[in-house]
Amino acid sequence: MAGIIDQVRRLLRPGADFRARASDIDPSTLLPRPPRKIDLRAARKLLAGKSVLVTGAGGTIGSELCRQIIRFEPAHLALVDNAEFALYQVDLELKEAGHGAIISSDLTDVCRIEHLNRVFERTRPDVVLHAAAYKHVPIVEENRCAGALTNVFGAKNVFDTAIEHGAESVVFISTDKAVNPTSFMGATKRIAELYAQALDVAQNDTRFVTVRFGNVLGSTGSVAPLFKRQIEMGGPVTVTHPEIIRYFMTTPEAVQLVLLAASLDNADVPIVTHDGRVFVLDMGEPVKILDFAKRMIEAYGLAPGKDIEIKFTGLRPGEKLFEEIFLDTDALVKTGAEGVLLASPAMIDLPLLTPRLSDVVEAALEGEQSELDEAVHHLVPEFSANGEKASPARNKTNR
C-alpha cells in the first residue's frame, strides 16, 4: 500500500500536469500481492550457448522473452514476427543494448511453413518458444477463420518444423482461456495444447512444454493501458460486469515463470518426462476488475464515481465472469519450484488427433466458418460455437 501512496504523492506534486501523471503510474503496484522472486539458475542451463528462436517476438510476452533470454548468453537469438514495426522495435532495442552480433530478425508469418523452414534451416534452433498468437477474445470471436489459422495452423507449423530440424525443446505459451473455453480464441489455444501434448508423447527427440497463465498486466490490449487512456480522457472507465474477475501477472514475472517451467528438467532434480502434461503458473488470488479500476482512478488522485465515472458495458461474446487455470478434474502436482504447478489435462493420441486437426485447418483455409465451428467443437466438446453455455464456477488456486 505504501507504494501506491508514494505514487499518489508524486502525481499530486505542485504544478504536475494531469497527462504527465500517466507515465508515472506503475499498474503492478496496484496488485494485491508483490511480484515473486524467481530463481532462474536452471534457465541458464537451458539457454546458455544455445540457438534460441522466439515467435511473436514483437509482442508483449515475446519481446520480454527476448530481453530475458539474452541475459543467459545464448549463442544466437532468432526473432520471428509478422508485424514489421513490432519486430523493428525489439530488434532495435536489442541492438542498441549491444547484442546485434547474436540476433537475427525475420519478418515471417507462422502460417507460411516454407518461410519457417528457411528460418529454421538458417538458425538451427535448439530451443523454440512459440508466443505468436491472436489473443484478443472479441476480435478472434468475429474473425474465427483468421484466428484458427494463426493459433492452430501456425502452431502446428512451428511444432512440426521444430521436430523436422531437430530442436531439443519447444515451449508453447498458452492461456487460462484454453480451460473449459467459452471463447473461440480459448478453443483454438486448447487445440494447440492438444497437439503439443500429443507430439510430446509420440516422439522422444523434441520435448514439448506447454505453459498456461492468465492476463498480463500492461500488455497490449489489457485493462491497465485501457483504463489509463480512459482516465486521461476524463472517463468513463468501462468495466464489462461488476463481478468479473481475472488472474493477473506482471510481464517480467510471467516470462520468468515461463522460463523456469521450461527449464525444470535442467534442474538438479529433473521432474519432467515426455508425458504431455501442462505447466500452470500459480497467480495467487484473482482480482476483481472493478476494484482494480477504482485503485487505478485513486492512484491519479481522483475519486471513482465522482471525478471519474465507472460504466458497466456487459460481457462481450465469448467472455467469462471467472477464468480458470485448470479443471477440477486435473490432478495438480507441485514441481518444487515456487509458482509453478503441473496439470494433467485430457489428451488425444496423435493418430486420432491428426485428421480432426486437418478438418480445422481445411475449414479455416477455405473460410468456411460453420464447418470450422463444427470441427473445433469435435476437438474441444466443451466449446459451444453459439455461446449458449453458462460461465463455469470458479476454481481455487490456494493449495
TrEMBL record:
Residues spanning the membrane: none
Pfam families: Polysacc_synt_2
CDD domains linked: UDP_invert_4-6DH_SDR_e
Source organism, top-level taxon: Bacteria
Polysaccharide biosynthesis protein CapD-like domain sequence ranges: 52-340
Signal peptide extent: none
Record-linked InterPro entries: NAD(P)-bd_dom_sf, Polysac_CapD-like, Polysaccharide_Synthase-Rel
Protein family membership: Belongs to the polysaccharide synthase family.
Protein name per Swiss-Prot or TrEMBL: Polysaccharide biosynthesis protein
